[in-house]
Hints:
- The protein is mainly β and 265 residues long.
- Helix content is 0%, strand content 39%.
- The strands form 5 sheets. The protein has a 4-stranded antiparallel β-sheet, with no helix packed on it. A 4-stranded antiparallel β-sheet has the order 5-6-7-8, with no helix packed on it.
- A hairpin with a 5-residue loop joins β5 (84-88) and β6.
- The relative contact order is 0.08.
Amino acid sequence: xxxxxxxxxxxxxxxxxxxxxxxxxxxxxxxxxxxxxxxxxxxxxxxxxxxxxxxxxxxxxxxxxxxxxxxxxxxxxxxxxxxxxxxxxxxxxxxxxxxxxxxxxxxxxxxxxxxxxxxxxxxxxxxxxxxxxxxxxxxxxxxxxxxxxxxxxxxxxxxxxxxxxxxxxxxxxxxxxxxxxxxxxxxxxxxxxxxxxxxxxxxxxxxxxxxxxxxxxxxxxxxxxxxxxxxxxxxxxxxxxxxxxxxxxxxxxxxxxxxxxxxxx
Length: 265
């Protein structure tokens, strides 16, 4: 026969709360170093998530290509040392980008039609990935109009890098520079190096219960002085640091903290 049963299941989810802020938005994308292809169709740039984090893990940056005709974007690099500051050859067939290998930054060449890559020159100027890179992660560099070489800053100098071989040569130049040099700021100061040294810092001064003496630390040692103008005298002959003196209620004893490289008491 029939009967009545009890069905147990999960309750439906509650309707969304219109006053709830919801999950936090994802970190914003940071984009730098955009360049346009010679035919005007593509825009290449580097992208990372966020702007700065401590103890981050590489890679951070990769090169993105934006198709102006279709609106599509695609990541075209997968460099473990990141891919930064893309530069296109005049014929649009090659892209040069910076990447870090071990502890140094170099430039790699990517053939855009096939994806084949090779090193162009390593190392060059170190990249700036550990900071916010507000002025891009690398100094600017560029192809010469004929596409046969690039001008690259290396070791604080302007260098020509042959595109085919990677050979590096200096580009000599001279510049007329006029710099105004102000007078030197110089003060003569005497250093206390004799048997008497003037103490300029007194720490933890504390009066005796009768108000006739003061104990204090100076030069990491404990001193006691009669007031108002007595001569300070060492309280102990210890060689360790002596700090934070405290008088006993009857003024007959002083407790203090001493500290040495292996500990204190």
